[in-house]
Specification:
- The chain has 104 residues and is mainly alpha-helical.
- The chain contains two helices and two strands, in the order H-H-E-E.
- The chain has a two-stranded antiparallel ribbon.
- The model has no long low-confidence stretch (mean pLDDT 85).
- GO terms for molecular function: 4 iron, 4 sulfur cluster binding; electron transfer activity; metal ion binding.
- InterPro entries: High_potential_FeS_prot, HIPIP_sf, TAT_signal.
Length: 104
C-alpha cells in the first residue's frame, strides 16, 4: 500500500516534470519571419534593413532597424525578437518594415 506522503510526492514530481517539459516548449524561440511571407511582403519586411529598396519604400531611412522601432519587443542586444506585426514569429533586430516607428 502506498502511503499518503509517497503518493503526494509522486503526483508533485509528475506535475513538476510536466511543467518543465512545457516550459521548454514555451521558451523555444519563435521561427523567424520569412521575407516571402504574405504579410512580410506587404509590409516590405527585410531581415537586413540595408537591403530595403528605398525607391519602393521611401519611408525607409538609413539607421532605421527593428531594434530601434517602438513595436519591437526583443531585448537589447538580441539578434531577433517579437514584433506584434508578425505574431508568433521573430523579426531580425537588424530588419525593417514599412510600419517602422522610432522609439520615443
Amino acid at each position: 500500500m502506498v502511503s499518503h506522503h509517497r503518493r503526494r510526492f509522486l503526483l508533485q514530481a509528475a506535475g513538476l516534470c510536466a511543467a518543465l517539459a512545457s516550459a521548454d516548449i514555451a521558451l523555444a524561440a519563435p521561427p523567424p519571419v520569412d521575407e516571402n511571407d504574405t504579410t512580410a511582403s506587404s509590409l516590405g519586411y527585410r531581415a537586413k534593413a540595408s537591403s530595403v529598396d528605398a525607391a519602393k519604400f521611401p519611408k525607409y531611412h538609413a539607421g532605421q532597424t527593428c531594434a530601434n522601432c517602438r513595436f519591437y519587443t526583443g531585448a537589447t542586444g538580441d539578434a531577433a525578437g517579437p514584433c506584434p506585426m508578425f505574431p508568433g514569429k521573430s523579426v531580425s533586430a537588424d530588419g525593417w518594415c514599412n510600419v517602422y516607428a522610432p522609439r520615443t
